[in-house]
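Subgroup meeting minutes
Present: P.N., E.W., G.H.
Scribe: E.W.

1. P.N. recapped why we're keeping a running log of single-chain structure predictions: easier to compare across weeks, and new members can see raw inputs and outputs side by side.
2. G.H. added today's entry (148 aa).
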Amino acid sequence: MRPKTTDIRKELGVLIAEGQNQIGDLQKKKSKIEKELQEAEWALSALRQVYELQAKQFGETKAPLFPKEGASYRFAGMRLGEALTVIRKEQQGIDKKQALKILEKEGFDFRGKRPLTAVHFAWMALDRKGKTNLERLTQKIVHMGRDK
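Output recorded in log:
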């Protein structure tokens, strides 16, 4: 005699619909936050331009806190890991050296550290952060097999 099983597909369907609705709501919030972030970046850029104009008016050739004239402030105040997360999200499949070139072009402040080494270690930390212990162990075993 077969044990009697309960059909839970209806309940699962309800849960799936709730999950999809939650994802939709979060995506709307994300879009709103991204728009607000972009507006804040524009406002900050405008304030910096006014600051620089004012500094020039009073004879300062280079305003403090601005590393290079015409430099981007896209990663200002970010830690290296945060900046790399942004870059990797925008350009999937990018490698460390390409990310380093972007950071240097954008005027990222490495604070006297060796940029390539700093990018390497931050990159590895991000990779570790996104994987479970089992995934990391599997990856190590695969790499060990390639070394032979």
